[in-house]
Design a protein that fits this description.
The protein is an alpha/beta fold. Helix content is 39%, strand content 14%. It contains 12 helices and 15 strands. Strands 3-2-1-4-7-8-9-10 form an 8-stranded mixed sheet, sandwiched between helices.
Length: 419
């Protein structure tokens, strides 16, 4: 099939490359010309897709990166994987609408359009379908097929990848569902049919809402445990020995990535705007997780005052990690960035080290900490925000004057505090 994937980011590029590898002819549509040029040159900016995989599908002519809408002509399947951010704390579907308008011109009878971008229930039916019908002059469900299949990409996860993660598929009609499932059966090991579009859309936002709420719960628990003088990390280890009825979540500096800080807001905002009801648990979780970077800064501020009788202002702080999770350069909505921004705003001299991020992105060094002129002992404090495997934690424990470990990966010691 001729497959077009609109958006070549963390979701779209892995799907496009996988589709090309299994035998489809794929057009990766990317309006960003700089990104498109990098892909055409065989240079991947997504860690999950190495240059060798990208170059292989380019070399076989199975994949072509383009920013020209005319290259969408004649598609059999088109998948929309564009961003759905928040603008002024409200859902922004402008990229989905733009993609729908671009695609509509090239829809031919029998073609299939699938939305993968995360959104609130009703988006595919009420937003995307009207745009496709208006622009094409065709009727969805009769002349062409429409579906929704939520992305489940976890950047940097070597165990659960696109091909072996169960894929939910949904269609506007039974016929649409059949076509959507037929395509995804070629690129994933397991497809899970949904009874309707809205159920699939809701499943996606609920998956991330579940994580968001439980992370908020354990973040608040860590604050209360600190006040009580109780080791929350050991408490969680004890609770995790229960073989039923408990799922272990861990505290941290906040939540990041595209999903957790954004997806639950789509659900709560939609319920309030459409039905005037408040999704109270989501809003409370949002308040807790958004305030977690401030809590980290307060803990560091208290430690500097208590241990060294000095303020954050003028203190030399080494911040380890800027990405929102280890093993990736994804710094979208990263709480680590928020922590360092707040420290700098308070007058701290902050050095950020992240081996996955270039200097241009957030002022991060590409070298491991301790290299160059500075050593760990030259800093007043170290805050471990993202525990990349490249960081030498044993050396950190041996040389640092003080460490605030926000991820609980270091053993507690007189000069090491865990969040």
């Amino acid at each position: 099939m001729h497959v077009c994937v609109l958006g070549q980011g963390y979701v779209g590029l892995p799907l496009a490359v996988r589709a090309a590898e299994v035998g489809h002819t794929v057009t990766g549509y990317e309006p960003d010309r700089a990104r498109c040029a990098a892909l055409a040159a065989g240079s991947s900016y997504v860690e999950d897709i190495g240059d060798d995989r990208l170059q292989a599908v380019l070399g076989s002519d199975a994949y072509y990166a383009s920013s020209d809408p005319q290259d969408l002509k004649g598609f059999d399947v088109a998948v929309i994987t564009v961003p759905t951010p928040l603008t002024d704390r409200a859902p922004d579907l402008s990229c989905v609408r733009d993609a729908g308008r671009v695609l509509a011109e090239w829809i031919e009878p029998g073609a299939t359009v699938v939305l993968e971008s995360t959104t609130h229930p009703g988006t595919t039916r009420d937003v995307l379908v009207p745009l496709l019908e208006e622009g094409s002059g065709l009727v969805a469900g009769r002349d062409f097929h429409v579906g929704f299949s939520p992305e489940r990409i976890d950047p940097g996860n070597a165990d659960w990848r696109l091909e072996n993660t169960p894929k939910i598929v949904a269609g506007l009609t039974e016929g649409c569902l059949g076509r959507v499932k037929e395509f995804y059966d070629t690129v994933t090991d397991v497809t899970v049919p949904a009874s309707g579009l809205e159920e699939a859309e809701l499943a996606k936002v609920f998956e991330n809402t579940y994580r968001h709420v439980n992370i908020a719960l354990v973040n608040e628990l860590s604050r209360m445990a600190h006040t009580l003088g109780v080791d929350v990390w050991h408490t969680l280890e004890l609770a995790a020995t229960k073989p039923f009825g408990f799922t272990r979540f861990l505290p941290g500096p906040g939540v990041g990535g595209h999903c957790l800080p954004i997806d639950p807001v789509y659900l709560s905002h939609h319920v309030k705007a459409r039905h005037g009801q408040t999704f109270r648990l989501i809003e409370l979780a949002q308040d807790i997780n958004e305030s977690q970077p401030d809590y980290v800064v307060r803990r560091l501020q208290d430690a500097l005052s208590r241990r060294f009788r000095r303020s954050v202002h003028g203190a030399r702080v080494l911040a380890l990690g800027a990405a929102y999770k280890p093993g990736t350069s994804d710094a979208r909505q990263s709480p680590a960035v928020e922590v360092t921004d707040r420290l700098r705003a308070m007058g701290a001299d902050v050095t950020v080290v992240d081996p996955y991020l270039p200097v241009a992105d957030g002022g991060c060094r590409e070298i491991p900490f301790g290299a160059g002129t500075d050593t760990v002992g030259d800093f007043d404090a170290v805050v471990l925000l993202t525990p990349h495997g490249e960081f030498d934690l044993a050396r950190l424990a041996a040389e640092a004057a003080y460490v605030l470990d926000t991820r609980g990966v270091m053993a507690a010691a007189p000069h090491i505090e865990r969040l």
